[in-house]
Amino acid sequence: MSDFKAVERALLSVTDKSGLVEFARALSGFGVELVSTGGTAKALRDAGLVVKDISELTGFPEMLDGRVKTLHPVVHGGILHRREDPAHVEAVKAHGIGPIDMVVVNLYAFEKTAAKPGVAFEEIVENIDIGGPSMLRSAAKNFEDVAVVSGVDEYGPVMEEMAANGGKLGYETRWRLAKKAFAVTAAYDAGIASTLEGIPSGAKAPSLEGADDGRAEARPLQSEAYPLQSGEMPQTLRVIAGQKAALRYGENPHQKAALYTDGSGLGIANAEQLQGKELSYNNLVDLDACWALVSEFDATAVAIIKHTNPCGVGMGATVAEAYKRALAADPVSAFGGVIGVNRTVDGEAAAEIAKLFVEAVVAPEFTAEALAALAGKKNLRVLRLKPAKVERVVKQISGGFLVQDEDAAVVSAASLTVATVRKPTDQELAALIFAWRVCKHVKSNAIVYARLDAGFGQTVGVGAGQMSRVDAAKFGAVKAALPLAGTVAASDAFFPFPDGLEAIAEAGATAVIQPGGSMRDAEVVAAADRLGMAMVMTGVRHFRHG
To answer: Cβ of 318: how many Cβ atoms within 10 Å?
Structure first.
């Protein structure tokens, strides 16, 4: 078996035609015969290249609205026969089948079609590629003799190697390309299975014309038109993601790590880094926590996160105001944290942020003035992202995975139940709802002290991750850098005893928001009445265990 194999005939059939003409022209320059289908053949001919139609190769026309084009023994026999097996060589010779030495395929854009709002069921079905995955798998299986190019990103490396080796490709390259092709088809099938699982039985829509010669790499998703019902979990968990970057290390230097992305272009994993050092594993975890927290608020909000817990959260009329309130809550812990902003960062806010050492800042946009102000902090990581909706949370445990809906529960003033004799004032109520939204993003057990400053929410103290609720109340008070008198407090779960509530009152809080549901709720409410506090219950718990 020769390590390097010549490419004499290539079959090209692609959806994503980026770089196609340049790649095909390079192949033609190496003396490679080009065979193609539908729209791909047209694009190559329009560029002046000589192309043989697949129907000319097979002696059989494309049919069934393009559903059958390459599913033919001439195609798969040409790909799959082993060149050094005399029986294989004799068989293809007897049937007049010539070898195909390279397959260039990217798949129908199934994931984009399925994600379109209101997409018809039959359009989803017509965008399930059959011939493309079959050709990729055939070529990958016979990698010893055939090169399979399953992505536009491979055009450059393949052309370079062929140019350096007289139009030939080496064994290691063919093996690498084969592994990638199998990964592509696995992801594609997983995407189809995940989408169809979310479609109710018998869902139909008006028929649409068959898909064109479209192809693209896939990722698992649900159709927005046919989402899984609330609370319904997939029967099979499919997690397919491509590696975006190898990270320097994981949570600690002795742990290897990498970042994988769903390819959507949305969320922290797909954020665009505008400046700064390479992102670390811990940066990404904290940035995700930070963005999730500020996304809770419709008004301008800033969160400063350290080890996934908020040091401070603030709101304001401007980003600069919100940042100052967030920083004032715990300026010591904010050192070396990450910052999330749910609005465009302007020059004024960036100038304030630049005064503090922080690891990273994420926002949907930055003005030119903001980027100029942050440019002086060369190591500061600045990320611009497009928001992503998280529907399910997946956590690996030994031997398997846990899957749950994202904690998307929200409360409003109208949904709360006042449990005490004294009702909260309007100001207390606004502060309670703010504190509750923050508390949702604090590790349990959690107590959050907050207040309104000029009408805008601001955290005062955060008691995170304590083993008892009393300790969380005390720790949050100890962490407060601002006066606690007149604040309100949020508890992520019910008070099992009055002692936690009493610690909050001793710290200076006048009102509390909590889920309720304890066997001793009556004792806790009686303690609040005795202390002159207002207490509202949400009926919703917000445990967060990591």
So the answer is: 13
